[in-house]
Amino acid sequence: MEKRGQWNSRLTFILAAVGSAVGLGNAWRFPGLAAKHGGGTFLMVYLAAMLLMGIPLLMMEISVSRKFRKGAIESMRGIGKKWEPVGWAATSNAFVIVCYYSVVFAWVILMFVNSWQFAGMTGDNKAASSLFFNLTKTTGLIQGADIPGGVLVCLLVAWGLIFYCIRNGAKSVGKVVKFTVFAPVVLLLIMAVKGCTMPGAGEGLLKLFVPDFTALSDPSLWVDAVGQVFYSLSIMMAIMFAYGSYLGDDANVAVDAMIIAFSDMAISVLSGIVMFSTMGGTGMLGDMTASGIGTAFIVYPQAIVNLTNIGWLNALFGAIFYMMLITLAIDSAFSIVEGVSAAVSDKFHIKPRTVTIAICAISGVISLLFVTQMGLAWLDIVDNWANSFNLILIGILECVAIGWTFSLRKVLNEINRNTKKFRAPYWWFAASVKYIAPVLLSALFIWNIIDIFVQKGGTYNPDYPIWAQVAAGWSVTVLVFISGFVAKAIVKKKRKNGFVEDEVVWKD
Ligand code: PHE
Prior knowledge:
The protein is mostly helical. Helix content is about 75%, strand content about 0%. The protein has 19 helices and no strands. It has helices spanning about 10-20, 25-35, 40-70, 70-80, 85-115, 125-135, 150-165, 170-195, 200-210, 220-230, 240-245, 255-280, 290-305, 310-350, 350-365, 375-405, 410-415, 425-455, 465-495. Helix 2 (about 25-35) runs antiparallel to helix 10 (about 220-230), helix 5 (about 85-115) crosses helix 7 (about 150-165) and helix 9 runs antiparallel to helix 12. It is globular, with a radius of gyration of 22 Å. Phenylalanine (PHE) binds near residues 232, 234, 335 and 336.
């Protein structure tokens, strides 16, 4: 066996984790949700959800995998043999997400390359909002199998970049995150200055920061805040298990997790400032939607062409915006591949690089589906199930496994092992992992089930045929959750041929 890769410094680990957490979700989902749920009110509820649930679970994943020095699958086996399938579910769901996150990444590259076109569209909202559709030729429906050449090239570039960044695991990730974490912050700051100096920006900022307490009466505020915390911190996706497993004995998990979570939130708020001030400045505050893809590819281009009267300057701001999204997306995209790769390579003792190549190749082929003309619709379906059902269920199972069948004291000792100043208190950690997180997540799960079955009669979106929703939604969910049992059968067979699994034990 090769020696396990390790981060070369504490900062590298923090940057890698921040890079994974800070992604497209910060740039477009967070501001969209804040617009939907009364600005400041959403910020407060989001902060509460992060403290009550997000941060403790983040600490838990990092410390458990650091202790075992294993990715998601083997770490869950270490918690208890019967929990291994939960590790598999997290890994399989991450694999599903890789297949389409890479496509969104490719679209961002496509828009960056074409941002010069904004120069000729000054003030023309219609042209700006149709650029994305013209480039991707999307039908929005389950039909049309053509793949536009430009999109295909961008997808290849996206996969090439992803592979390049993780080709040597922690070692190569450590090198690129110094750039991919700071670059988007600099670009966001430039855009914030532009946004905040526009007349009308103040109105947008008021909308972002002043709480509108009537929004509290809508329970979907909590649903969205909890979901966003979960998604944004990249937990339950096998990622933090992989990243935690590359930590050394001296890691200060309690403090690092706080830094990661608050940096993530700070960048979300910064994106909120950029979005709200720009939309205020271009008179488009009412157009902000909660849908990320809509904001980034349809609404924001309209803002770009109204930023100034000078075409090339608008195009430059467009290029900055999409460059910012590229640098935001890349470290999230490769972190999921790394999560899957570490988990599988630990399980089967296959060289990390071989697994990484295999995953990039297989998910690269699957991702072709999402760049066809019907790709956006399929992506929408898969994304909804991966996040609204799979991720939440995995979260509940993980909390039950670690909170109820393992010793939380042991985990907390690991979290607090090297901290002097800040120690996570037991009551907070236990309340969260044992009660608050499972209860909130179960409520969220039931809410989503009621939403789809009772309110919408079993359809997620009536424009998509039911068979497609079953094929890309429910079937994927079933596959994700049976993957662990299939793998168990494979391991059993391999054992007969002399394969010996690692011993994963918690040594005190
Ligand atoms: N945390 C990322 C974001 O906010 C989301 C993400 C990361 C999704 C990694 C998938 C994989 O965009």
